[in-house]
Design brief:
By secondary structure, this protein is mostly helical. It has one domain. It has three helices and no strands.
Length: 134
C-alpha cells in the first residue's frame, strides 16, 4: 500500500515538474522572441533613418552635379539628362545584381537572427579554449 502511494506521489511530482518545464519553455520562447523582434525593429528603424538621410544627401549632390554639368555644357537640360541617365544605368545594374546585393544578405540576416544559423559565407569562428590562458 505504501509503495502504491509512493508511485502516485512520484507520478504527481513528475507531472508537476513537466508542467513547470513547459511553463519555463514558453517563457523562454517569449523572451527569445522579444529579443529577436527588438533587434529586427532596431535594424529596420536604423535602416529607414539612414535611407532617408542618404536620400536627402544624394538629392542635393545630384542637383549640384546636374547644375554643374549644365553650366559646363551650356545646357541645363543636358546636365539633368546626364544625371538621369546615370541613375537609370545604376538602377539597371542594381536590378541585375539584386539577388547578390539585396536578397541574399537580407535572407542571411534573417536566417541568422531567427534560426541561429550562420550565413553561408561566414567562416565559423573558433571559440577560445577556456582552460588555456589567452
Amino acid at each position: 500500500m505504501f509503495s502504491s502511494d509512493n508511485h502516485i506521489n512520484a507520478i504527481a511530482q513528475l507531472l508537476a515538474d513537466f508542467h513547470r518545464h513547459l511553463e519555463l519553455r514558453a517563457e523562454c520562447f517569449k523572451v527569445d522572441a522579444v529579443s529577436k523582434l527588438s533587434k529586427l525593429l532596431t535594424v529596420l528603424a536604423l535602416s529607414i533613418i539612414l535611407f532617408m538621410l542618404g536620400s536627402l544627401a544624394l538629392w542635393f549632390i545630384s542637383m549640384m552635379a546636374a547644375t554643374a554639368l549644365g553650366e559646363w555644357l551650356n545646357s541645363p537640360t543636358a546636365g539633368y539628362a546626364i544625371v538621369v541617365g546615370f541613375y537609370l544605368l545604376l538602377g539597371c545594374v542594381i536590378y541585375a545584381r539584386r539577388k547578390e546585393w539585396i536578397e541574399n544578405p537580407v535572407t542571411d540576416f534573417l536566417a541568422k537572427l531567427f534560426l541561429g544559423e550562420p550565413a553561408p559565407g561566414d567562416a565559423a569562428k573558433p571559440e577560445p579554449d577556456k582552460h588555456e590562458p589567452l
